[in-house]
């Protein structure tokens, strides 16, 4: 009794498959374990082997048809054996419903193949492999072949591999030569006893080769009716595509996100990829367009074969600038310059900054601080409804360090270096029209909670324009914190006549090595600017290191 061939299930969620190509013609010989047909699922293209040996009596479902799993697609049996009645009925029904067509020529009678011969085919070396290139024959035509020994080298799209012989004997005929690109499962050579006639195998293989050459275009690859340009999709939009479309896009190096789809629900199918014409653009032009937000579809290329070059993008940008300028002037907006008078606070700041840079011998040291313990201390205050900021902790640690290194709490005068045994710690506060530095008087006598209260009070007074001269006079050292603006680190200018200023950056989770292990810690950068006329490099380094020590071990300063 004839054996039915079904559409196999190749995955838990597979419900149907597409027959891509029959590798044995109807009436041809099938060998159990040898390739019978190629099928495509929603995830891959795979070759299916025959499950029995015999004649392919009937192909029920043709190439290109989508078939539910477990449905019969062909019958294999002994030559002349009848197929089941239900299969005949199905075939008659298909013929009845089919459109009239020109009568086809009767298939040629199968050629009897010499059983002493062995066909060498191009093997499939990957799920998506469709063809390979013969790089080198390792045995010359007429040479001795030993089963399991290297026979030829082939190249796929991913690797070069040596293929061993599947039988022993003489290499009677090399059908496909070195450098030829050969579809998988196609005969490339014949092995058999010396002097054996191999013409029957060549004749048997000829109909398959002729069928492949005469196969309709739909089987080989869909042809594009008209070129398609890139489609504009929203960022994050989901794109649906068929496996064959993805394969073709990968082969051509296309981005599926750019290709318009003509399949169901806008799905991208193979013919869409073949019809797609990507925009030709140089890498530099593409980079400029991406940085400046230029849609390349609106740019005309002047390079070779219409390729978009850098000057094309720059010209488009210039045109856009001129358009915006003309639009602004059309509504009465005159473009020009405005003079902002250098007076008041702005002039005072300018004069003091220039004087500081011209007078002080400024030098800087930068250090990283692990704020893990400082954060824990802050959280403990928060747990009892006391608000302590990171800046409060920096102020408190710096005040303690200034008492440990009093040379940093001094100023230079004509009489000499004036060392101060009190600490008036300054806080740089940004205003809408400038910068001001009020200071906390006698900060070295205050506890952490008192430093926090005083700091917030001065900041509020500064922003509400309620500071008095007493609030910003007499400072001995300044702290400038730009961490809240996302600044990693920076160099501040000394607030003369002081001898130093501490610049504080943001706190950022950073991978660090602790005990030879990588850990994520909140790291803060600090940069000390000091007057080298007053302080040498070593004590300045020790001073900023002491601030780091207090912040990393905050209980030492409480």
Keyword list:
558 residues, alpha+beta, six-stranded mixed β-sheet, 28% helix
Characterise the protein shown here:
- The longest helix is centred in the middle third of the chain and has 21 residues, at 310-330.
- Helix content is 28%, strand content 25%.
- The strands form seven sheets. A six-stranded mixed β-sheet has the order 17-26-25-24-20-23. It has a four-stranded antiparallel β-sheet with strand order 1-8-6-3, with no helix packed on it.
- Residues 89-108 and 212-226 have low confidence and may be disordered.
- The protein has 13 helices and 26 strands.
- The protein is α+β, with helices and mostly antiparallel strands and 558 residues long.
Detail the topology: elements first, then pairings.
Blueprint: E1 3-6, E2 16-22, E3 29-30, E4 35-40, E5 45-49, E6 54-59, E7 66-68, E8 72-77, H1 85-97, E9 118-121, E10 131-137, E11 144-145, E12 150-155, E13 160-164, E14 169-174, E15 181-183, E16 187-192, H2 199-214, H3 217-220, H4 243-252, H5 270-275, H6 283-292, H7 310-330, H8 345-359, E17 362-370, H9 372-383, H10 390-404, E18 410-412, E19 417-419, E20 425-427, E21 429-431, E22 434-436, E23 439-440, H11 448-463, H12 469-472, E24 477-481, E25 500-514, E26 517-531, H13 537-552
Parallel strand pairs: 20-24, 24-25
Antiparallel strand pairs: 1-8, 2-4, 2-7, 3-6, 4-5, 6-8, 9-16, 10-12, 10-15, 11-14, 12-13, 14-16, 17-26, 18-19, 20-23, 21-22, 25-26
């Amino acid at each position: 009794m004839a054996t039915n061939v079904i559409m196999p299930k190749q995955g838990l969620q597979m419900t149907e498959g597409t027959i891509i190509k029959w590798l044995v013609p109807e009436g041809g010989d099938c060998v159990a374990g040898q390739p019978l047909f190629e099928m495509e699922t929603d995830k891959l293209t795979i070759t299916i082997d025959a499950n029995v040996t015999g004649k392919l009596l009937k192909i029920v479902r043709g190439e290109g048809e989508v078939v539910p799993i477990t449905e019969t697609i062909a019958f294999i049996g002994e030559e002349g054996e009848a197929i089941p009645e239900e299969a005949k009925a199905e075939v008659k029904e298909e013929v009845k419903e089919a459109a009239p067509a020109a009568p086809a020529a009767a298939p040629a009678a199968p050629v009897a193949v010499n059983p002493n011969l062995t066909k060498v085919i191009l093997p499939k070396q990957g799920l998506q492999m469709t063809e390979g290139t013969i790089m080198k024959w390792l045995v010359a035509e007429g040479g001795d072949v030993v089963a399991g020994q290297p026979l030829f080298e082939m190249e796929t799209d991913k690797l070069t591999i040596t293929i061993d012989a599947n039988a022993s004997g003489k290499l009677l005929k090399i059908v496909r030569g070195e450098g030829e690109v050969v579809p998988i499962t196609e005969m490339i050579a014949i092995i058999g006893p010396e002097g054996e006639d191999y013409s029957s195998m060549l004749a048997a293989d000829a109909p398959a080769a002729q069928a492949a050459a005469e196969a309709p275009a739909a089987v080989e690859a869909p042809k594009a009716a008209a070129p398609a340009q890139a489609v504009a999709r929203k960022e994050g939009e989901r794109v649906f595509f068929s496996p064959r479309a993805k394969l073709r896009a990968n082969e051509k190096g296309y981005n599926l996100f750019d290709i318009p789809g003509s399949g169901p629900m806008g799905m991208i199918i193979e013919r869409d990829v073949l019809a797609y014409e990507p925009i030709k653009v140089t890498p530099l032009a593409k980079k400029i367009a991406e940085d400046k937000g230029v849609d390349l579809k609106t740019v005309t290329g002047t390079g070779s074969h219409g390729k978009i070059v850098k000057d094309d993008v720059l010209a488009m940008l210039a045109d856009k600038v001129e358009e915006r300028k003309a639009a602004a002037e059309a509504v009465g907006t005159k473009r020009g310059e405005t003079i902002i008078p250098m007076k008041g606070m702005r002039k005072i700041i300018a004069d003091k900054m220039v004087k500081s840079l011209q007078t002080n011998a400024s030098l800087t040291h930068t250090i990283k601080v692990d704020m893990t313990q400082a954060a824990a201390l802050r959280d403990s205050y928060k747990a009892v409804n006391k608000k302590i900021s990171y800046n409060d902790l920096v102020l408190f640690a710096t005040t303690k360090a200034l008492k440990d290194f009093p040379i940093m709490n001094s100023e230079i005068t004509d009489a000499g270096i004036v060392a101060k045994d009190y600490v008036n710690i300054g806080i740089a506060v940004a205003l809408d029209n400038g910068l001001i530095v009020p200071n906390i008087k006698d900060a070295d006598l205050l506890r952490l909670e008192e430093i926090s209260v005083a700091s917030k009070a001065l900041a509020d007074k500064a922003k509400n324009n309620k500071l008095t001269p007493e609030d910003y006079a007499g400072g001995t050292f300044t702290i400038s914190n730009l961490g809240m603006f996302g600044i990693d680190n920076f160099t501040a200018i000394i607030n003369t006549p002081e001898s130093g200023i501490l610049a504080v950056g943001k706190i950022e989770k950073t991978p660090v090595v602790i005990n030879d292990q990588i850990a994520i810690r909140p790291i803060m950068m600090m940069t000390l600017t000091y007057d080298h006329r007053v302080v040498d490099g070593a004590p300045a380094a020790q001073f900023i290191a002491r601030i780091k020590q207090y912040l990393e071990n905050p209980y030492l300063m409480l």
